[in-house]
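Tokens in:
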């Protein structure tokens, strides 16, 4: 399984690599912003992978509201869980 949590996913090479992995039986899950810069690839992503779209601006205390800040925190928490670090 590959989990992607990125605010912007606009690179064709990354999309093609994820598609190759998916075609080889690897499950792909993507969490990304529902915002204009993603519009070019978003339909293809949704057609081929499990995609969760988050509004561009999210009200989460301490993040400033930008989706990139929210995903940074999410990535840090996932990484900490993966390596066994306890977050407070």
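Residues out:
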């Amino acid at each position: 399984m590959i989990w992607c949590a990125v605010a912007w996913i606009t690179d064709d090479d990354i999309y093609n690599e994820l598609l190759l992995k998916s075609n080889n039986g690897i499950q792909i899950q993507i969490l990304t912003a529902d915002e204009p810069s993603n519009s070019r690839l978003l339909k293809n992503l949704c057609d081929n992978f499990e995609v969760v779209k988050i509004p561009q601006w999210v009200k989460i205390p301490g993040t400033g509201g930008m989706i990139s800040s929210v995903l940074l925190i999410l990535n840090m928490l996932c990484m900490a869980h993966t390596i066994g670090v306890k977050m407070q």
